[in-house]
Amino acid sequence: MSTATTPNDHAAASHGEHLAHHFDNAEQQFESGKLGMWIFLSTEILLFGGLFCAYSVYRSNHPEIFLYAHRFLDKPLGAINTAVLICSSFTMAWAVRCTQLGRRKALVRLLGATIALAACFLGIKYVEYRHKWREGLLWGKEFHATFERPAAPVIPPPKPAPGINPDERSLIPPAAQGPSGLARPGERRYVEEAGGPPHDVQVFFAVYFLMTGLHGIHVIAGMVLLTLILLRATRGEFGPSYFTPVDLAGLYWHLVDLIWIFLFPLLYLIR
Amino acid sequence: MASIDGANGIGELPADQNRLGEDNYLTHERGIRSWLLTLDHKRIGLMYLVVILSSFVLGGIFAMLIRTKLLTPGNSALMDANTYDQMFTLHGAIMIFLFIIPGIPATIGNFVIPLMLGAKDVAFPRLNLTSFYLWITGALMALGSIVTGAVDTGWTFYTPYSTTTNTNVIMMVGGVFVLGFSSIFTGLNFVVTIHKLRPKGMTWFRMPLFLWGIYGTAILQIMATPVLGITLLLLIVERALGVGIFDPALGGDPVLFQHFFWFYSHPAVYIMILPAMGVISELVSVFSRKHIFGYTFIAYSSIAIAVLSFLVWGHHMFVSGQSLLAGMIFSFLTFMVAIPSAVKVFNWVATMYKGSIWLTTPMLYVLSFLFLFGIGGLTGLFLGALAVDVHLHDTYFVVAHFHYVMFGGSVIAFLGGLHYWWPKMFGRMYNETWGRIAALIIFVGFNTTFFTQFVMGSHGAPRRSYHYLPQFEAYQRLSTIGAYLLALGFVIVAVNLAHSLFRGRRAPANPWGAATLEWQTSSPPPHDNFAVEPVAGDPYDVEAWMYDSRIGGFVRRQPAGAPAAS
Amino acid sequence: MEKPDNVPTSGHAVVGHVVPFRVLATVWGLLLVLTVVTVAVAGVDLGSLNLAIALAIAILKASLVLLFFMHMRYDRPMNAIVFVSALLFFMLFVTLALLDTHAYAPEVIPGYAPALPR
Known about the structure:
The complex is a heterotrimer. Chain A contains seven helices and no strands.
């Protein structure tokens, strides 16, 4: 006899405790909840869609800004964060499975793991943001990073091949790069390309902070939601006959992961 | 059953017809908390009705102030030019975001949809109440902005003015953001309700066309409103943090704001009209005593309008710096989107053809709608033609066009629907004579106000303008006279409806002889909607119902030889 | 006694389908591998293909999350239709906005449209 289920599950199944009066049966209620959640996720797609649109517009009209400025993002940290969210999605999907199978302890542990991974994601984000703040790599009117000339002679960018418009700036950056890893800020200096950085570098950071900021807000909201689900789970409210809230919260969490799956290459891996 | 109710010679109505004085949804639980924390879709619909009609009055007051100022072409003691900017902004923002967009879905929709489905409630009653409180929150924020620095940007909040003006844009725009979520959740609720709570026998093509209209509206609420959300969010952070996304000095693009804004706001106008069209589909069949003509076409055209409406937003930007290529694409698509609307109008007229027209107040509103929406829709084509729009953009022609479709379309249909479902909601009949008088006054007042503006606009009179050239003075004055006539009409409507609550004849279950399911429960309905679960049939089989003068309403026709139900 | 993978321990009937653990773990592994691939490919200069490949891998990862973690593979089609519609509307928006901004970019700041051929 499994100890994972509580008497509540039996009661709920036989008395239809969770069945609302306007639904005919549990399946109709469950399917309705699912459809409702997928519709909500669609609205989130369109909400972020606006920002992806702004990204597309600015990147396609000014690729030089994105190419130059994205180097100041920390690729390894971004990649780690991607892995963190993927793992949290895995633990979340696993948690839903455990609820369906009545494994309460596993559910609680996996929900806890998901929340912990989310916190880890936010922690890494905080490190990244703090670096940007210190270096003045901010949006719009807050942008105040300075660019220095390197001491050593700079290799000039290659001359464009004959036949190409000579005004076109080369998009191949010189040797000095933006910071990587957890180097202390101020230890590296940003090197001006021969000819200088492009105009309006702050546009990239506006887009960066808007997209990752809105995403971060959704991560925080997800953590709150999952914490509430966790509390209900510890009280044994979920089981094979009623796991809709876990399922729906899981769908929301996977969306948060989905959005980051696109944010990472678009912001961090520009070529 | 010998006592007489009123002078109509109608006997006392049994409980399956009228439940006033019995246990109905209005009396089921008492106390303010039972209303404020209700999960009953009927009560939520009523609460929405109260606040939304109040918003209409408030927006209307701003309109009357504007029209009164415009009696004089120059400076006026009534208000200065800056205040005038605030007036038309508030008139627009309140009417659009607090009244029309929630409008028919939140009021009539909430009340009627579960009843039409023979269901006990919408899919997510708690979400429904949440939507209501989101409306309240958004409305308070938007109205709060009035006292802290009323916005003067026009309801369209165009950058760069909206990012630089020192009025309280953030609070107004924040309020609209919250209202947007109210709209999204209502749409979400209705989509799931229509998908999941249809009764046995009610397939997609046997459901009332009002539900098709609501479904199309809900698609737009769900897909378009989030883009407004992000647009307003971007505007807020632009003002608060100087993000620079719309500021050319910081590398931004102000025309991008317009793309973002109109991607929602064009579908938004179809959010306004689709439910109205749904109402008209119901009313035209009942009051022609005839099955709706072209059900399938009307149903599909609701969806076609919903989808096509996403493809035309650039027609608001023909002269904003949009490229010619985009202009041509959008102009072509604008002409296309008129087609499904026209299909509906033809089908409604075909429904009336050889019908037995019953000129009740709702039917007068239907006839008004056909005329006014027809003009409004056709003038949209003028504006959709690129070359003509260059001349007409930002003139009174545009103002007249959208008032003909939004007011002459949506509001007229809303009034028709309100009168139509009023007996069901409150168990009382309004006074038919005064209802008709008000409908006529509104029709005359409306045309006086707004047809004049078509003429004025085609002569070049600019909109949103405090001052105007003396050559337009006669038009402006005529328009204002029309506005006062309109106001009179609305006062009569309000008094008539309010009076009916106390003195109106008690309404039977089916005063109009409609075949949809909401008329198969008492007026007003019990808390649980149906004492006996109804059986879904053909929603337009109006000929199956015949008038019974003993109850002043319609009962099901019995097969030949059987006595009529008593 | 070996119970089948998708039957709850208490023996109740389950509303909805249970995804096998094998599937979840495989998807997880694939997602991590694909992340590594994305980073690796970004290190190689392939010109305009870089963006296309990065997006293609992202779409593949997203599909895995949608189909298996989010259950779309086993769900009613309506849920998928809703989600895909949102994506279609989004793409419509981006396409037309890109089309238009490209066309008027030279006029926003005269002469400053480095992305466009002269």
